[in-house]
Amino acid sequence: xxxxxxxxxxxxxxxxxxxxxxxxxxxxxxxxxxxxxxxxxxxxxxxxxxxxxxxxxxxxxxxxxxxxxxxxxxxxxxxxxxxxxxxxxxxxxxxxxxxxxxxxxxxxxxxxxxxxxxxxxxxxxxxxxxxxxxxxxxxxxxxxxxxxxxxxxxxxxxxxxxxxxxxxxxxxxxxxxxxxxxxxxxxxxxxxxxxxxxxxxxxxxxxxxxxxxxxxxxxxxxxxxxxxxxxxxxxxxxxxxxxxxxxxxxxxxxxxxxxxxxxxxxxxxxxxxxxxxxxxxxxxxxxxxxxxxxxxxxx
Length: 299
Hints:
Number of domains: 1
CATH class: Alpha Beta
Structural class: alpha/beta
Order of helices and strands: HHHHHEHEHEEHEHHHEE
Number of strands: 7
Number of helices: 11
CATH topology: Rossmann fold
Helix content: 55-70%
Radius of gyration: 19 Å
Shape: globular
Largest sheet: 7 strands, mixed
Distance between the termini: 32 Å
Low-confidence stretches: none
CATH architecture: 3-Layer(aba) Sandwich
């Protein structure tokens, strides 16, 4: 219901006719501002289209507006102690394991890893951004170890406590996975083409459209292959279901974060706009693999 593709495509056509899209930029600051403005303008135009069409189209738009929020999750707040933030991302790891989501993510990534191996004819280098306490990187490490694939996996986050926990778990599990502190907005310490595949899971909605566009655009420099973003599918069902599932752990802050996150998931057309602005091309796909949205950008 919250994908709103009929009104969304009409809004996109209008924005192209008005010259609002496509968007050109010269630096990362300009990219951030223009991507934020473009998505905001898209949402305004989509609302105008829904008013013109009326009926169910307007009702769906009003539902989306009622659910949508720009509030930050508790785990992202810098005024929260690192150990409390770590407890929240560990709760997310437990939920992902319970729901089998890491297996889904690995299934999405393995074909891309195999493709990179055929293309590069060497060890494939994977970087996960905003990896939290490392659940996906560790799950991927276990699979490539079992399959005896030549893959070097690096997880990263800007929170030192998350990185420390990831390295601790990698050592316990005896996995060749390393974690490092990294600012996804300014990864100047990464070399050109240092990685083959850049991955971000369950974190796209934690960033504004402009921030996400910057992350994608930056990854063009240090990735030989592409960027894969995996997140929740924007829908009423997940807006209700995610906090309910999160609440099963009896962790109030985590349940609240689940509610906030589900309200912030991007629609497929929003991800499409962000990726096109970031790369200046239509070299990406956005697919629904329920309950996931998967953005794949090929460089």
